[in-house]
Amino acid sequence: MSRDAADSESPGTLPDCPVCGRPIVTVTLTGPTEGVASPCGCQFVPGSLE
User: What is the pTM (predicted TM-score) of this model?
Assistant: First the structure.
């Protein structure tokens, strides 16, 4: 089983950042169409996590 398959089956896994692919712990919304992922600091459109 690959790491990706194991992660997608495990409950409680963190979502991946849509920009860099690192796990996201928190998202700070800075506007209706802007968010910042932590701890990586990438900026993205919040709807892209859905």
Answer: 0.63
